[in-house]
């Protein structure tokens, strides 16, 4: 009996390490894991998926900052309702509320232009440029290494973007080991073709967000247009539909539990291959510290709001964002603890290093790995300071404005190409916009308290973490701090919009010698902030130089284990594969992987966000599902759940079946999986998709668009 | 496809009517449904369960207002922690907090006496007395029928209670068709033997209440004592353990999904066999109207509380009780709608009446059924008035006190035996206690607003529902009402406790001619209330006379369908049987029928009510479950779920396996089942039990009581 128990405990501890279906693969890696793909149920040839610039993967595009896919040869694009929300909002007004009512273009002439800054990117090139990027970095260290990589990347991008209508970027895989030049065609004329009403496209809203079971029709159909010459163009009446290099075909049949599925998209960022020390730092310090600091700010705002209704309104949005952050970080922390992430990663790293000791490469790699680890450990010496400085620059309005104005003045002294990103000429419009918004979100008493709370924490840091400029500016005691803040906020005119915009246009010298107390304070702090920035870049340069050794060891170790390694997500196209999978979320609580229209009626209260539109409720009551029902359950599917590996940026990713046909549209993940950016725990990591049968049924029976179904190759029944 | 859909819709509509495992059976009925019992998995002889005064059913007792069972031959009684909570509280003080810490008697000498009013009832007689009860009622109608039944019942009880230490009552089965004289031995010396800490016995408290999955050790062990002569006695040191007529044996093995289980207990009240019109009234009027009225009172109290902190405290308990009532009634309403209860009951009744038309009994039964239905329909003519008068007499303090004092004066004019129950000599102590409590729960402004809110609704009723005495007392306009309340509450001294207790002792004539404005008002209202009471009794008398015809038709119709009929619950011993059953609560949401200690850790926040004690958390971490693990899941069970038919009063009911061994202790039901007092919907009706393996493990490994396990016949491992 005792043995049996031990076995269970071991099984639970090891479960998170099992790599079943984990992975955000570069398409070029897929032939190498073809065996796994076929074992999982894939029926195609993995070699056909190896090139993201060829069909079918070049049908998968970046759109509105997330993912979408071409679904017809005349430029129809399918993405999420929440991804295209800005397009729907842009076309709505008091007379025509497309958010509330949805939109069905009667024919092609009725397709509505998107907001002019809405973009779609078709990846047309993806070339390894490691040698070019690192050519001048070799032999350098720290800031020199960083600058060499930065300069080489900028040069490659500038060269690539000589072609009209094209956007380029350099992406690194495995943290500095490989570099790729990504070339993308930038389409600028997108149009709204079909959107369900908010109460379908966003059914459940914040209440259901992250909460399986979901019942949302979170999809929208757009169409990409190009100029008469076939090139990217701004919106014009005479533009014609874009002919994509490839498009996906909607499946005629649906999925069920256990079915193979795969997904392609542009996941933003993950930390799966960070070192054990970084895992420990995240769980043991970073998340708890960030939550504690944000809670303190929350308390300040709530206390001030209770006494002052006007302040309450001005800080409502910031308060909401703090609450969301606290919830999200707490969820990530809970998840990482539940998955025992620190211990699992530590065991794995220890085993890797032990194995490496017996390899010939150890002599080269181990010193670099040790150096990288020492650098990472050094980072924790200033982590409290860095967290507080980050919050001061993100959670204040006037203080942030003053710091930004001074930094801009500083950067303006350089050629535009050498300016810090975010402070180049093309960024100045954005900065002006931010300076204008201050007015609606600022109250001097609240800001003083926020800054005071953060700087009181700062004053308690050990001396090594305190830049002398800050000590000089704010003093060493709470009383000195309070007096300084009272004096500075009493003698600044930055609370006035005209003043802020005036300083935006002022000459650098004028700013540095400003008679505004807050600007003057910011000028005194700036040397410290620039120095910290320099130190950060030097550290990043060294990590870029050293971390590849860690990755090389990990890749070799995994190869030894018979496993491949995917690079951490970095907004480039990735493919994941897996299965339609239920979720055992908690003791005695299980969730089935398909939801049905029954659940819409169960949840419906008639009140936002559970206020399904009458046409939908009527259609459900009528039950006219012919041709769309799930044959196994006899129910009309709405959403489904898979174990596909996703993260932010995967919104709108197409989900394909074993034959490569489109069966779903990714739009959410489950709450238990918010920690997946660090660790993929197969027990809890799930992705949530719109079932294409639900979309087709809506388009056929509820808000009919037969011409569109025809073009999509799945005619109305 | 269309046919398939119809089939599904039909199946869903009929599902609630399926009677699988439904039923709160009288033990005497069990041999008649022996086939069903065996088909479900029962391995014993149903005839052995037919007599509730013989073993094993006479081991099942009434205790603390709910159910318990003897579990040793020396008087050990097992019931819920929440049923024995008063006993635990009575033995707790600042130095020794048994609520927080639990209690393990080191040996028999350490067993602690219960509060003196705590009682245990062993049923020793259960005899049909229909003929005696109805002998003088035959030929009478209305109030005459009611009084004849009442007098005959009182005479039987008085005769029965001549025996010392015995409590008797008359219970009617099938609403007046059958009457039984119940004789119970009343044990008055109960002692506390074993109670877990609150954070085990009530883990999850109100958050988890009604919410499967649960993780509560809701059990307590008591022991019954009798005098040295073996007769019931008040607590005395020299008393000795009671030797029960029978006791249950704890099973050595546990249960798993699909296993047969049965339960015996004292369910309080159900309405399953009420007429379709009463179902419709409950769903379409009574529940919504009660919720609306209670919400109005909630608003009054919350508004007053926001302006007056003292009033907020005084009405906190009433507010909580209103909120609970609103939640409970809303849940019942949702459940009845979800089960389509009105239509299902209506279809069934229509089919029954149609079938009856073809029977010879129709000539006798149908006129009585029609008369009963007409009476029920009549009741709706005054339902608004009755609801409001009920709320005035339950949701006020001074007004209620005045009415009660006047009614008591009125009743005191009669011989004690003829007084209204609740106003007899033995009730006067209770009334005095209630009059004393007024002080802590009363604020004149709030009470005036509550009475005002209710009487404003009253003023809007049609004339036929308004007794002239009320119109005369309160006027016909809101202005007259407000003036009356201001005047009366300014000129009453009932807010003073000494005054209330003075009037309690005053002579009837003094009260009727009181100089206290509120007492005088109550005296003016009293004739109306007495008249309404008379009308109610007349109606109840006629229903008692006529409803048996409806029941007779139903029983015959069910027999024709091959089904037996159990009487609605009435606090007499009943048996239900069924299976350990999962719950599919909502679309894509399934609950397994067994929870495990894993869930305790998952839920634990360290904060009440999820603050499992350290010894429990340590034991879970240690995982020393040898001999108690569920062999199928390899987990340590805590609670389990069944489809057993239960209602309020079933708390503490023993749950037995197919061999009649004790496997669980009933303590809760699921939220989806709050409507089960009206309709048993097999899709949603579940009962929640403590797994005996969890209790034994706690007694063995966490808070050890080896001598107790020995006595229970399940020695420590």
UniProtKB/TrEMBL annotation, chains A, B:
InterPro entries: Pep_S46, Peptidase_S1_PA, Peptidase_S1_PA_chymotrypsin
E.C. numbers: 3.4.14.-
Function according to Swiss-Prot or TrEMBL: Catalyzes the removal of dipeptides from the N-terminus of oligopeptides.
Family: Belongs to the peptidase S46 family.
Keyword field contains Signal: yes
Lineage: Bacteria, Pseudomonadati, Pseudomonadota, Gammaproteobacteria, Lysobacterales
Stretch forming the signal peptide: 1-20
Gene3D superfamilies associated with the record: Trypsin-like serine proteases (2.40.10.10)
Pfam families noted in UniProt: Peptidase_S46
PANTHER family, A to Z: PERIPLASMIC PEPTIDASE SUBFAMILY S1B
SUPFAM superfamilies: Trypsin-like serine proteases
BP-aspect Gene Ontology terms: peptide catabolic process; proteolysis
Enzyme class of the recorded protein, top EC level: hydrolase
Keywords: Aminopeptidase, Hydrolase, Protease, Serine protease, Signal
GO molecular function, one term: serine-type aminopeptidase activity
Protein name per Swiss-Prot or TrEMBL: Dipeptidyl-peptidase
